[in-house]
Design goal:
InterPro entries: CAF17_C, GCVT_N, TrmE/GcvT-like, YgfZ/GCV_T_CS, YgfZ/GcvT. With 286 residues, the chain is an alpha+beta fold. The chain is built from 5 helices and 15 strands. The chain folds into 2 domains: 192 residues, Gyrase A, domain 2, CATH 3.30.1360.120; 67 residues, Elongation Factor Tu (Ef-tu), domain 3, CATH 2.40.30. The protein has a 9-stranded mixed β-sheet, with helices on both faces. The chain has a 6-stranded antiparallel β-barrel with strand order 10-13-12-11-14-15. The radius of gyration is 19 Å and the shape is globular.
């Protein structure tokens, strides 16, 4: 069964009598819908609605949660959470020397002997389990990245910069990372407005080419006009955050889409519920 050890991830623990209420009021994820044994994506937003921190959240027992995030942003994330703590009865701490291990495949379920094992709910068509018990084996990180990319799962750093994307841009509305029925949280008004008006134009798309794709950050262009930005890639398959209205216009007009100077095809992840707009943006509007 394939597995990978992720050395660039760590955990932040939030525990105490007010832990769930505290997190429910600031994060995008609806904790009322978070079951034991599963990890869901989420974000802490700026008041303007853009993602400041992204993570996977899971329950770690009664009144306790794990927030798995990039190791390089963990200290800043803890400081930001502390700003919202006020008088809440919670303890917030970064875990030291955590080993995040992934297992995937049809039989990848959390082991009964591993109380930290959780199912990664971002994946609709794959069974992916995450463990925080640790292993010294590195496994196949390249295969893991290829799996993530093939399934259209974007992560900050690799695919977008924090502070530069809305939750809809990176499909948190599609992967269970936004609670549309919960109460207010930081940035909630902007996210709700985007959802109800259907104004999300930037989306994660899967990019494929006949050659290895260029570096992350390369622009996707149509007739010299930018339509998106390439994120991480695995050989000839990659992710991009792109304007779906401009992609639609290019497809309707039969215009080539380029990543740098490489022709590419661009598709919506198979599991996603959104589609290309019925009416594409015109060349003048683009």
């Amino acid at each position: 069964m394939p597995f990978a050890l992720l050395k660039d991830r760590t955990l932040i623990s939030v525990s105490g009598p007010d832990a769930e209420h505290f997190l429910q009021n600031i994060l995008t994820t609806d904790l009322d819908a978070l079951a034991a044994g599963e990890a869901k994506p989420g974000a802490l937003l700026a008041p303007q609605g853009k993602i400041l921190f992204d993570f996977l959240i899971s329950r770690a027992g009664e009144n306790a949660f794990r927030l798995e995030c990039r190791a390089d942003i963990a200290d800043d994330f803890v400081r930001r959470l502390m700003l919202y703590k006020l008088r809440a009865k919670v303890e917030i701490a970064k875990s030291e020397q955590v080993l995040v291990t992934l297992v995937w495949g049809k039989e990848s379920i959390a082991s009964e002997n591993d109380p930290t094992g959780v199912a990664d709910r971002r994946f609709a068509d794959e069974s992916v389990a995450r463990s925080y018990a640790g292993t010294a084996d590195t496994g196949d990180v390249t295969a893991w990245q290829a799996l993530r990319i093939a399934n259209g799962i974007a992560e900050s750093g690799a695919d977008y910069a924090l502070g530069d994307a809305f939750p809809h841009d990176v499909l948190l509305d599609e992967t269970g990372g936004i609670g549309f029925r919960k109460g207010c949280y930081v940035g909630q008004e902007v996210v709700s407005r985007m959802q109800h008006r259907g104004t999300a134009r930037r989306r994660v798309l899967i990019v494929q080419a006949g050659l290895p794709l260029p570096a992350s950050g390369t622009e996707l262009t149509v007739e010299g006009r930018p339509v998106g930005t390439l994120g991480s890639s695995a050989g000839a398959t990659g992710l991009a955050i792109a304007r779906i209205d401009r992609i639609k216009a290019a497809l309707d007009a039969g215009q080539p889409i380029l990543a740098g100077d490489i022709p590419v095809t661009v598709t919506i992840p198979a599991w996603a519920k959104f589609g290309f707009p019925q009416e594409a943006v015109s060349a003048e509007e683009a």
